[in-house]
Automatic annotation (TrEMBL):
The keyword Protease does not apply. Signal peptide: none annotated. Keywords: Pyridoxal phosphate. The keyword Nucleotide-binding does not apply. InterPro entries: Aminotrans_V_dom, PyrdxlP-dep_Trfase, PyrdxlP-dep_Trfase_major, PyrdxlP-dep_Trfase_small. Residues 60-302 form the Aminotransferase class V domain. It holds the Pfam family Aminotran_5. This is Ergothioneine biosynthesis protein Egt2.
Length: 396
């Protein structure tokens, strides 16, 4: 494909989107690009015809090649990476199989994604592990947060600190590098939920140097659904198991230390759709063909700032932006009560779009996310839809 295709409407046919659907909630499930979708389908078709031969011989080799490309993007060795089917599988694998010691403590932040928090809750309920939480807000003060975290780490010596690269809703970016450095200073294991990470922003494992980090290729890299990459620093390769416990555990027990075990352990934990992971290669190639990561991330940021302004001006509300290139914006919605699920279902389907809302400190916000196929007219449409929603919501 040519780099000459302008970003905006002209790029929409290259994404798996209904022509009439206006997709501004791209941070939820992501939008797969057509080349990655087709690559996935083609590999599935080829592999279904000669299942054993493909699954045992060809697909693992292709998966390895895709992993090499991901390793380059994440600036690490492929040996430190594993494919997971979701961020939730990644955090469950880390927390549920970690060798806890009685009275260990876990530190989290209040805006952790619910499923990740559930894994922490489970560990707390099942093992003799205590959880503490530090609260943060939209407009947190960076140095104040760092000093609060530092005092906690110094005083309580938790075993592990879990925090987001960028939270889900409301969207807040955390000082990831500094928090990791604090973890190192106090000998605390860092676990980063970077579900919003790869494709959204440069993400270098060599420079961040976390202990664990997972990132969803389906959210911002336009890869097929359910493609999460787990990074584990070498020191901890043998501290966790892939869930479900299966052949992966057997592989590790056979040889110690095994040659390149991490990804193999996750890949062979259960039957899986290998083609969807392999097809990430087509998403990477597609993104290169339209101008590359830097250009895409900059466009996503520019368009979402313009979009937020259009919506907030139409609604007479405020919006809260993050530093470039984090292309997600919290926009305040003038609602007094959350509409019912029934109202939303009918409303969104009638408008051919979808947005999520969150109530935060007594106000309602939505999260909009940039994408190469969006342009200002999409946000003019969304502004009109949101105005209508506020006027017609029976609860408002
Ligand atoms: C910050 C964050 N963490 C974790 C998740 C869960 O991702 P998954 O559906 O891959 O388990 C999400 C999903 O939106 C998220 O936004």
């Amino acid at each position: 494909m040519s780099e000459c295709i302008p970003f905006g409407r002209a790029l929409k046919p290259y994404f798996m989107l209904d022509e009439k659907y206006v997709s501004v909630n791209n941070a939820s499930s992501g939008v797969v690009c057509v080349p990655a979708f087709q690559r996935h389908l083609q590999l599935l078709e080829e592999s279904e015809k000669v299942q054993d031969l493909q699954t045992r011989y060809r697909l693992p080799k292709l998966a390895e090649k895709t992993m090499d490309q991901l390793a380059e993007l994440l600036d690490t060795s492929p040996n430190n990476l594993a494919f997971c089917f979701s961020a939730t599988q990644a955090i469950s694998s880390i927390l549920l199989t970690f060798p806890w010691i009685a009275n260990d403590r876990i530190l989290t932040l209040n805006l952790a994604y619910p499923t990740c928090q559930f894994a922490v809750d489970f560990v707390q309920d099942r093992y003799d592990v205590q959880m503490d939480t530090i609260d943060i807000d939209f407009a947190y003060d960076r140095s104040e947060l760092l000093s609060r975290v530092e005092s906690y780490l110094a005083k309580n010596k938790p075993r592990l600190f879990i925090f987001d690269f960028v939270t889900s809703m409301p969207v807040i970016q955390l000082p990831c590098k500094e928090l990791i450095q604090l973890c190192k200073k106090y000998n605390v294991i860092s676990v980063i939920d970077a579900a919003h990470g790869i494709g959204l922003s440069p993400l270098s494992m060599s420079s961040l140097d976390p202990d664990f980090l997972y990132t969803n290729a389906h959210k911002w890299l336009n890869a097929p659904s359910g493609t999460t990459i787990l990074y584990v620093s070498k020191k901890y390769h043998n501290s966790i198991e892939a869930l479900p416990i299966s052949y992966g555990y057997h592989i590790r027990k056979q040889k110690s230390p095994p040659p390149a075990p991490l990804n193999a352990r996750f890949l062979y934990a259960s039957s899986t759709d290998l083609p969807k992971f392999i097809a990430i290669d087509a998403a990477i190639a597609f993104r290169k063909s339209i101008g590359g990561e830097h250009k895409i991330q900059n466009y996503n940021y520019d368009i979402i700032i313009k979009g937020a302004k259009i919506i907030a001006e139409a609604l007479g509300t405020s919006y809260f932006v993050l530093a470039p290139p984090i292309a997600m914006v919290n926009v305040e919605i003038p609602l007094r009560r959350m509409p019912s699920a029934e109202f939303f279902e009918y409303f969104w389907q009638s408008k051919n779009t979808f947005l999520r809302f969150v109530e935060y400190h007594g106000k309602f916000y939505t999260r909009i996310a940039g994408a190469p196929f969006l342009e200002e007219s999409d946000f003019v449409y969304i502004a009109g839809v949101l105005k209508e929603l506020c006027q017609n919501s029976p609860e408002n």
